[in-house]
Write a structure and sequence with these properties.
By secondary structure, the protein is α/β, with parallel strands linked by helices. It has one domain: Carbamate kinase, CATH 3.40.1160. 35% of the residues lie in helices and 18% in strands. The protein has 7 helices and 9 strands; from the N terminus they run E-H-E-H-E-E-H-E-H-E-E-H-H-E-H-E. Helix 1 links the parallel strand 1 and strand 2. The chain is globular, with a radius of gyration of 17 Å. The structure holds adenosine-5'-diphosphate and uridine-5'-diphosphate.
Length: 240
């Protein structure tokens, strides 16, 4: 049911690294980042407290081609460092739009960004600052989707918003199966037993146990983020 005021007070947005590439083959596209940040700033101006977990897939992924033959943990640390680069770019763009952003990293890299300290993150959110969580969970063998579930639970977010390339959860990967149909809502158990592939099982399990719902929506659809925040029927809701 749409509201006149935001339906949520504190949200955690998971932004895929690949969303920052736009149509480029690699890296960060400033025009794309500017547009995404504009949408985030709009919901922040409505009084919603915003935290972001940023991915790194546009630069490096522990499981991708560039890491073949590498020790997995080492490759994953490279992936986490990639998310730090994205976090810096995102916070820079946020600061330019008038939002005040703070980056907090799960691995210590003190000359570059401050470490993740939960009470400090909560303080920033209360002050209306946007907090960008970098370096995922700080552990190899995890993903930034799991980091989103973890940080979302830690900061008491009411909803995890998975901002991605597709406009919801489908019966099969819509990029591979044209017959796939989109769910308006589904339970965590369904998402996990059907192996729907949009998020990893660790992230789903953590959100399920913490009763933290997830909205999957397209970051490429203008206005979709605001619609989700207003409680509109946008994307797919994954719930307990
Ligand atoms: N059942 C499904 N419903 C929706 N998307 C799916 C599904 N299975 C796999 N996907 C894929 O998951 C991707 C979204 O996850 P995301 O984490 O943003 O991408 P990536 O893993 O490439 O960073 C989409 O690009 C989509 O192709
Ligand atoms: O807690 C974490 C989060 C991320 N990563 C590494 O960082 C990469 C980039 O993150 P992810 O693939 O989740 O980014 P996205 O798909 O959102 O762009 C991953 O492939 C992993 O190699 C990790 O090891 N631990």
């Amino acid at each position: 049911m749409p509201h006149d005021t935001p339906a949520h007070k504190r949200i955690l947005i998971k932004l895929s690294g690949e969303a920052l590439m736009g149509d480029d083959a690699f890296g960060i596209n400033q025009a794309v980042i500017g547009r995404i940040v504009g949408e985030i700033a709009e919901v922040a101006r409505m009084g919603v407290q915003v935290a972001v977990v940023i991915g790194g897939g546009n630069i490096f992924r522990g499981m991708a081609g560039g890491a073949v033959g590498m020790d997995r943990a080492t490759a994953d640390y490279m992936g986490m460092l990639a998310t730090v680069m994205n976090a810096l770019a995102l916070a820079d763009a946020m600061n330019k739009t008038g939002l005040t952003a703070r980056v907090m990293s799960a691995i210590s890299i003190d000359q570059v960004v401050e470490p993740y300290v939960r009470p400090k993150a909560l303080q920033y959110l209360e002050e209306g600052k946007a907090v960008v969580f970098a370096a995922g969970t700080g552990n190899p063998f995890f993903t930034t989707d799991t980091a989103a579930a973890l940080r979302g639970a830690e900061i008491g977010a009411e909803l995890v918003l998975k901002a991605t390339k597709v406009d919801g959860v489908y019966s099969a990967d819509p990029r591979k199966d044209a017959q796939a149909t989109r769910y308006a809502r589904l339970s965590f158990d369904e998402a996990m037993t059907k192996n729907l592939g949009i998020m990893d099982a660790t992230a789903f399990a953590l959100c399920r146990d913490q009763k933290l719902p997830i909205k999957v929506f397209s970051i490429f659809k203008p206005g979709a983020l605001k619609a989700v925040v207003m409680g509109a029927d946008e994307g797919t809701l994954v719930h307990v």
